[in-house]
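sorry for the late reply, my laptop died twice this morning and i had to redo everyting from scratch. anyway the thing you sent over, i finally got around to it. pasting the sequence first so we're on the same page, its 423 residues, then the predicted structure underneath. double check i copied it right bc i was rushing
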Amino acid sequence: MKILLKAVQIYHLTSAFHLQRQNILIQDGMIAYIGPDSREADKILELDGMCVSAGWVDMHASVGEPGLEHKEDIESLAEAAAAGGFTDVLCLPNVQPVVQSKGAINFLRTKSAYLPVNLLPTGAVTVDAQGKELTEMIDLQRAGAVAFTDGTKPLQGAEVIVKALQYLQPFDGLLMNRPEHTRLTEYGQMHEGITSTRLGMKGIPSLAEEVMVTRDLQLLAYTGGRLHFSLVSSAQAIEAIRQAKAQGLQVTCDVASYQVAYTDATISAFDTNFKVSPPFRSSEDVAAIKQGLHDGTIDALVSAHQPHDTESKKLEFDLAEFGIINLETAFAVANTALANAVSLETIISKLTAAPRHILRLLMPGIAEGEKACLTLFHPHLKWTPTEVGLKSKSKNSPFLGQELTGKVIGIINKEQLVLNHSF
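ok and here's the structure:
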């Protein structure tokens, strides 16, 4: 099949065509031509203002299968990811049973082999993600695990962090951790501040994140290795990571794209679709996130996709589960919230080159003779997500009914074309 992308603006920092508007012909999954001339094709995609980049990578998503298929299964996750522009999605190990065996790794890889989205398995760091005994991470890496994390369960023990970092060094493995001191966040519902006091809800202090970032950085300096912080949210934590990078430590971090969309003062009170972990924090924290994205302290933007069924969310605020779905809205939310603060080039880089560098994945090129792994998007197109239009099985999103700027047109990957837009 021949697909012609007409007059698309190319976003790819190492491509000779970066920021140029060119025609791209894709034939049988390969980029056959890039240039000003038009070519014959079976399918022509033309939309004024359309852009193209290498396929986007999400470093933080939950898939329910196996065990929690009623929230999300592998097929629905892939559909949601494609709708959100992602060609690659890192899947957390928090399923039932936890991903801690070669069989579990192979299950995800086999079941997603023919889907248009590459689902990248992670292996649990500790048995059953309980934070105690280490898993057989070498075996998991050989089976195809691209990183190691206990996912939604923050690692608490310093001895576990030290042992894991040492264990992973022989094969340059990546340890990912959510920086949260769980004893300090126990029973917390939202960011600790004036708003939580006014609403009478127990707060989640920034300190819970900051003390763990500081501790883990000290452990990293002691052991060596590679450490990635997932879902940073606090200004002081970001500053600590900035200083650690300046000292030469191999540390990276990401932030949920929705973290800059609201503050604790602007969320709808007691609406459980705004209950996320880490919580929406202060305006000072949001400003620090924007600065961290701008100066490179924060390496990647992620969806932090956490699907929940109605029974888990339509409850009293203190009983509802943490998390929202965001695969389908991740780019649009970031593009809308970061307007005038972070350039589009930076946003795209944090969805493409940066996560691949962290995960040691090859960066797809946009050049003749390269395999087509592409995301098509329009940065200025306005749209409103609706429950009916969602591909995810779950509907727990605060962005439904809210106008967003920036629309994913589709993806081309693994010789498959998936479109959100009619041509």
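Residues 55-359 form a domain with the TIM Barrel fold (CATH 3.20.20.140).
thats about all i looked at so far, will dig more tmrw
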